[in-house]
């Protein structure tokens, strides 16, 4: 029986326990109107320090770049157009039921010209969703990619000692990525952090190698490169 042979005759494929558990695991069907603890005057939820990502589990994929009903056991990020994930605020169940190990917090856009009230609302939504995903077993990378004008909001709701971060880099302003890294180190209380950089081209790749960061090519560049090389 242990080798896959049935005593009654014939051969049976050994049961894949992980697949069996995944198939039998019930979907989450309801999202509560949860109120979380906070460390600020705006009620932006405080993340659970025990549910931060411990590694970047592959594949690392943008939300909406693969069928949403597919099981995806890696890490989702949201460095894509807002319309691709805006509906998560109304219905966050697809991510919860995707089987992903981790996510980067939903990157609701925060721009320099946004009123502070709107920027706070975007940060509230980001942290509320992240905190709820933690409650259903998904670990979190804190997203650092917001307008520098509203940088005072960047780490609201992130507890001291947090070590898992991700950001979207831009080749013409890598100094901003450096400042985000320093803010993350200060919050963590150590330089031994998990820091993921998405995009920013060769300059960001080289900087990441120098600093020991994890770098991923952005999907747009990857797709363009594939077409130039006759693969797209």
Descriptive tags:
single chain, 232 residues, alpha/beta, seven-stranded parallel sheet, 12% strand, disordered N terminus
Structure overview:
- This protein is 29% helix and 12% strand.
- The protein is an alpha/beta fold.
- The protein has a 7-stranded parallel beta sheet with strand order 1-2-3-4-5-6-7.
- It is globular and about 45 Å long.
Strand percentage, roughly? 5-15%
Q: Summarize the biggest pleated sheet.
A: 7 strands, parallel
Shape: globular
Q: Give the structural class.
A: alpha/beta
Query: Which radius of gyration do the C-alpha atoms yield?
Result: 20 Å
Number of helices: 6
Mean pLDDT: 87
What is the CA-CA span between the terminal residues? Answer: 47 Å
Please state how the strands of the largest beta sheet are arranged side by side. Answer: 1-2-3-4-5-6-7
What are the secondary-structure elements, in order, as H or E? HEEHEHEEHEHEH
Unreliable sequence segments:
1-22, 225-232
Helix fraction, binned, reads 25-40%
Question: Quick one: how many beta strands?
Answer: 7
Sum this structure up briefly:
With 232 residues, this protein is an alpha/beta fold. 29% of the residues lie in helices and 12% in strands.
Task: Compile the SSE list and pairings.
Layout: H1 17-24, E1 60-62, E2 75-77, H2 93-96, E3 102-104, H3 116-135, E4 139-143, E5 164-168, H4 174-188, E6 194-198, H5 201-211, E7 214-216, H6 219-228
Parallel strand pairs: 1-2, 2-3, 3-4, 4-5, 5-6, 6-7
